[in-house]
Amino acid sequence: MGSVRIYGPPFSTAVSRVLACLVEKEVEFQLVPINLAKAQHKSPDFIKLQPFGQVPAFQDDTTTLFESRAICRYICEKYSAMGNAELFGRGGPAERASIDQWLEAESQSFNPPSSALVFQLVFAPRMGLKQDPKAVRDGERRLGSVLDVYERRLGESRFLAGEEFTLADLSHLPNAHYLVNATERGELFTSRKNVGRWWEEISSRPSWKKVVEMHKEAPPTA
Amino acid sequence: MGSVRIYGPPFSTAVSRVLACLVEKEVEFQLVPINLAKAQHKSPDFIKLQPFGQVPAFQDDTTTLFESRAICRYICEKYSAMGNAELFGRGGPAERASIDQWLEAESQSFNPPSSALVFQLVFAPRMGLKQDPKAVRDGERRLGSVLDVYERRLGESRFLAGEEFTLADLSHLPNAHYLVNATERGELFTSRKNVGRWWEEISSRPSWKKVVEMHKEAPPTA
Q1: What is the rounded distance in angstroms from the CA atom of residue B177 to the CA atom of residue B61?
Q2: Which residue range or ranges hold the GST N-terminal domain (chains A, B) (predicted)?
Q3: Would you call A51 and B96 a contact, using CB atoms and an 8 Å cutoff?
Q4: Residues A59 and A119 reside in one and the same domain
Q5: Nearest-Cα residue of chain B relative to residue A97
Q6: How many whole angstroms separate alpha carbon A99 and alpha carbon A87?
Q7: Does one domain contain both A98 and A197?
Q8: Residue B109: its chain A contacts at CB < 8 A?
């Protein structure tokens, strides 16, 4: 198990997604620091691991992977019996498909506006970049529409894919964490009854609390 | 098998992605027309199938799904032995993960700029909307960078995930089809040696030709 390595800083939302999955699955891993401020993710050695020059990269023995959601799927398949064995479903194609569709909803509908807001409201100020007020307004409007759909869905089931916490819920944690805890836009989540209840439940999981602790140990300025 | 239904017009890139998968897997299906010009995708009945009001929606007996890439994964799992049995891999977690990571590269890196270009250069003129020259320039620049990574990758292997045509390649067909055949930006693909060879090979598959025929039978004005 000691052969699992993840490359990247914990404060990155994509790195955090994989960390949350590894902790939830109780898979031991080594975190290899990559300093984005020093452009280590654009170095020739890193490009060999991740051809787009983005974090995270991932290694497990001879398997090298990129793209956080693909890495999470791999961890759940490879270590299916470890830790939370429900994380990517246990049943047939229909159960897996329900998780997949909400994981895709995160990737296609939730992620674009929430990533834009996290960049504008959290990372741009830290990097000394000017905020783009139009991008903030567009992001808020688009994320609000997505969360209206989530509000209806989460009135029908405890979690997005059904009654169990799955990869679909987990994948929302990193962006939602920044929006609720590091901006004044947390109301997007907390003002919606079912979304607020869901956020409270998924963000209270010991696995996610452990990832948040890792943010503190390696802040963006490190 | 007659119980598989896909809702949406074939000219939609997301609908085409699912059609290509169904044809490749030789799964019989019924195509249910949805008229976007008449906003049928925003009707209460359609919202019950697809809560975001987007095409396609998909049904297979009692399973209702949305998100084209999740639907493709489901079709490959449910009908694993039918048609092209290699489409989503046959081996262990590492083979599946290689397909997943390039499917995610399509979704996260290739799709945003290529969808923006298809909208600006193909659909906006058809809808009588004004083109945004900055969105076109940004899309070209970003897609070019992504295709530079693909060019290196496709110098190492015949297809994106390895030596077999998979869901990862298939998922690129709809946007690439419009860019090569309905705009003057086809050079983005054809000027790159390996990408051009790959495009030629994947777009020549009988399954994709069948989907292109379906575009002609139900054009956007229908």
Answers
A1: 31
A2: 2-83
A3: no
A4: no
A5: B74
A6: 9
A7: yes
A8: 52
- pLDDT over threshold 80, residue A77: yes
- Give contacts of A 70-89 with B, CB under 8 A: 70-71, 73-74, 77-78
Q: Does B51 touch chain A (CB under 8 A)?
A: yes
Within 8 A by CB and 6+ apart from B179, the residues are: B114, B117, B118, B121, B185, B186, B188, B189
Task: Please identify which residue in the block is written with the tokens 């790159």.
Answer: B192
Answer yes or no: is B65 within a domain: yes
Q: Which residue of B has its CA nearest to A76?
A: B93
Spatial separation of the C-alpha atoms in residues A103 and A178, rounded to whole Å: 19
Q: Which of B87, B108, B137 is the last residue of a domain?
A: B87
Residue pLDDT, tens place only, A159-170: 999 999 999 999
Assign residue A29 the CATH number of its domain. Answer: 3.40.30.10
Question: Could you give the ipTM of this predicted complex?
Answer: 0.95
The answer, yes or no, to whether residue B13 has pLDDT greater than 70, is yes
Residue A190 sits at the chain B interface (C-beta within 8 Å): no
Q: Of B72, B87, B102, at which residue does a domain stop?
A: B87
B161 to chain A, any CB pair closer than 8 A? The answer is no
Domain range enclosing B163: 93-208
Q: Is residue A220's pLDDT more than 90?
A: no
